[in-house]
Amino acid sequence: MLNTLSGRFLILTTAFVMLAEVLILVPSVARFREDYLRDRLERAQIASLALLADDMIEMDLEAELLENAEVLNVVLRRDEVRQLVLSSPIPQPISATHDLRDPGALTLIGDALHQLLSPENELIRVIGAPVRDAGLLIEVTMETRGLRAAMIEYGLRILILSAVISVLTALLLIFAVRLLLVKPIKGVVRNMQRYAAAPEDARGIIRPTAGIRELREAEDALSSLQTELTHALKQKERLAQLGGAVARVSHDLRNILASAQLITDRIEASEDPLVRRLAPKLVNSITRAVSLCESTLAFGRTEEPAPTLGLVRLRDVVQDVIDGENLSLEASCIALDSAVPATLNLRADPEQLFRVILNLVRNARQALESTGREGRISVTAGEEEDRWWIRVSDTGPGVPAKVREHLFQPFHGGARKGGSGLGLAIASELVRGHGGHLTLSASSAEGSTFEIYLPKGDGTL
Fold first, then answer.
1. Most buried residue, 71, 80, 246, 263, by most Cβ within 10 Å?
2. Under 8 Å CB-to-CB from 372, ≥6 apart: which residues?
3. What is the mean pLDDT of each successive set of 10 residues along the chain, which is 461 residues long?
4. Was domain 306-455 assigned CATH 3.40.50.80?
5. Which of 195, 186, 293, 193 is nearest to 246 (CA)?
6. Domain ranges of the chain
7. What 3-state DSSP class applies to 93?
């Protein structure tokens, strides 16, 4: 109960109402004390009338008058003459004097609190103005025992009444809150649970009906979110189905193209000049098609293993890449060089790091080959306090501005005509698996530079 919105609202409402009642209680008790003392002054004035009517009254009657007035002495001041009208023995010295002719609110509250906190029976003097202008002032001496008991009784009645009012108010408020807030919120929660069970079912999307503006805004936002999510899930399902179909088609097409590639090897040996001139173009086209199929199948494998991290001598990995690419550059005017320190070791998966650097170097080589002019590809590396960096630069034509917008997205980032756009996407994904990132740091007509950053710690950069 206490962990629910209704339970906590009940407790807070009761506490706040009780606090308000306590703040009202203190002035109320102070007012009650003032009325009590004025009542004793009026009783004393009435009792003194008996003496004014007859100067000689018996002592028993005087004691009875004082007892009924609940005072010990009565003094009247008439015509500037102070007269002790009624008197009885004083049991103890007077401890305080209270003037009720023009009291301030703070004075009354302070005197009332002092009275409640003083359990001893004290003797006090009370001064006030007589009723009906029957003199200049009236003064009585009285004990505080009865006054304090009456104040406590009055305060308890007020507290009990306040508690009852607080509980009733809280119950009414909790009923209103459950009706206006809790019930609609529970409806939203039930809708979210129903939608979570079947997010593809559009019937589970919430229909905003709340009359409260804030709750209606929440329902509108939830409805928009659920609509977008349902649409995204349906699109994802279609893309998954399309991806599966593309993978199957790519697999079969790769086998067909492999057979065609074997045939083109025979065609290249033909003595016909026209065939010998057209055969290389046919071979290149088939090779690109096979490469596209293989890249598509590789990217479609979602079971790419997590990197097995260990200390890797970067220079050896880069040299393996350069040696492999040099086999294809025997008759080319493109130069490959490396400036990786021999002592540089970094934490990475050697096989995946090889694939990343190979993709970048091969992309640079193919970009340079497309220009038909000389070029250079350089691989450099170094380290900083919290990371390692690897830089692959070329003197190629640069990456077109339109291609840079989706450079690392699959099937979008291919700058080379006939490319699949998967090489950079795969390389970026492998680098992210290491906790680092791959960026295009520079690109112009003088060449491009790709940078790999790998963290030295456990976190990503």
1. 71
2. none
3. 67 77 83 90 79 61 78 80 75 88 87 88 89 76 91 88 80 80 82 82 80 82 86 73 64 64 66 70 66 60 68 93 78 85 93 91 87 89 94 89 77 50 79 91 90 78 35
4. no
5. 293
6. 5-168, 213-298, 306-455
7. coil
